[in-house]
């Protein structure tokens, strides 16, 4: 119920306009967002690198309404890739295709993202294409496959709560396309996704083991200590080296667990979002964990 409520709020445009201009809300967003500017995100990235943590930078935004906006997003990401390289930051970028015009023109979206993947390949970097709601899965996978065949330097995200993900991962492993596995943060019908958390978790474990066995440098994205523990046990039992995969977590969530993973010798990358369009991302984080809601309420009454 709480999850559905916050996902509903994430789509409310009037509330979004108020939140993104409210000084109080902006202060609270700093729990999960590195800042509004690239410079702020780079400063956070340097601090994380010093702690032994790599990053993937995400310039927040999705569902643009014009191709001009899509091209602006492309240019921001181009500057981000160049800044990561120039600053010798251990990191790459993550992006959403609807920010690059997927709802408006597949061809324009492909052209925009191809410029970034080509540049990433030139710099020895990498572009991770985030997965959005189920209606975008086929187009997202088609675009990633096209760019991977042309340039490499691109991977994708698969969500364990979708029934189709088992087949998608089998194909992606065969194609040697890098995958980040997460549970999924969008509200989906029971006809497409597991409605019960226990089934989502079971799917996550199964898909994690497939990726670790057959995938190319998979990213295991979770804050769930049980999932992390099972991953550790599996790689140990199979003799899979810690250099063969990485854990991924979100900036601002479970810093204690992040420190422990690094101390134990595991590779960890944080998803570091920045930008002014932080509201939908922020609401999805609240939807995922009730503890995040309590944190916000406590701090709200302190302001």
UniProtKB/TrEMBL annotation:
Bound cofactor: record note: Binds 1 FAD per subunit.
Q: Report the catalytic activity.
A: L-proline + a quinone = (S)-1-pyrroline-5-carboxylate + a quinol + H(+)
Q: Which Pfam families match?
A: Pro_dh (PF01619)
**Which GO terms are recorded in the biological process aspect for this UniProt protein?**
L-proline catabolic process to L-glutamate
Extract the InterPro entries matched here. Answer: FAD-linked_oxidoreductase-like, PRODH_bac_arc, Proline_DH_dom, Proline_oxidase
Q: Which SUPFAM superfamilies match?
A: FAD-linked oxidoreductase (SSF51730)
- The entry marks the following residues as binding FAD, namely 131, 159, 183-185, 197, 222-223
In short, the EC number is 1.5.5.2
Q: Does the keyword Oxidoreductase apply?
A: yes
Task: Note the coiled coil stretches, chain numbering.
Answer: none
Its Gene Ontology molecular function terms?
nucleotide binding; proline dehydrogenase activity
Indicate the segments forming the Proline dehydrogenase domain, all copies. Answer: 43-295
Q: Which cofactor does it need?
A: FAD
Q: Binding positions for substrate? A: 96, 284-285
Annotated keywords = FAD, Flavoprotein, Nucleotide-binding, Oxidoreductase, Proline metabolism
Q: In which pathway does it act?
A: Amino-acid degradation; L-proline degradation into L-glutamate; L-glutamate from L-proline: step 1/2
Name assigned to this protein: proline dehydrogenase
Which organism does this record belong to? Answer: Solibacter usitatus (strain Ellin6076)
């Amino acid at each position: 119920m709480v999850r559905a409520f916050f996902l509903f709020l994430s789509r409310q445009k009037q509330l979004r306009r108020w939140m993104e201009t409210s000084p109080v809300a902006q202060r609270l967003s700093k729990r999960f967002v590195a800042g509004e500017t690239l410079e702020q995100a780079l400063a956070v990235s340097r601090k994380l690198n010093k702690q032994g943590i790599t990053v993937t930078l995400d310039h927040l935004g999705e569902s643009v309404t014009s191709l001009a906006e899509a091209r602006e997003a492309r240019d921001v990401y181009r500057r981000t890739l160049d800044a990561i390289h120039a600053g010798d930051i251990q990191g790459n970028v993550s992006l959403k295709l609807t920010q690059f015009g997927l709802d408006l023109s597949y061809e324009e979206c492909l052209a925009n993202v191809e410029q970034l993947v080509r540049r990433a390949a030139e710099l020895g970097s990498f572009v991770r294409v985030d997965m959005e709601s189920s209606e975008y899965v086929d187009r997202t996978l088609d675009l990633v496959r096209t760019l991977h065949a042309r340039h490499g330097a691109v991977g994708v995200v698969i969500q364990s709560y979708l029934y189709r993900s088992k087949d998608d991962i089998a194909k992606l492993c065969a194609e040697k396309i890098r995958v980040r596995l997460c549970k999924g943060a969008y509200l989906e019908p029971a006809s497409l996704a597991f409605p019960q958390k226990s089934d989502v978790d079971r799917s996550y474990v199964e898909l994690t083991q497939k990726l670790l066995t057959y995938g190319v440098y998979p990213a295991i994205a979770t804050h769930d200590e049980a999932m992390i523990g099972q991953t550790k046990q599996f790689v140990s039992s199979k003799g899979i080296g810690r250099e063969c995969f990485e854990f991924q977590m979100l900036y601002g969530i479970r810093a204690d667990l992040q420190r422990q993973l690094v101390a134990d010798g595991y590779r960890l990358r944080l998803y570091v979002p920045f930008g002014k369009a932080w509201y939908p991302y922020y609401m999805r984080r609240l939807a995922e964990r009730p503890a995040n809601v309590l944190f916000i309420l406590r701090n709200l009454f302190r302001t």
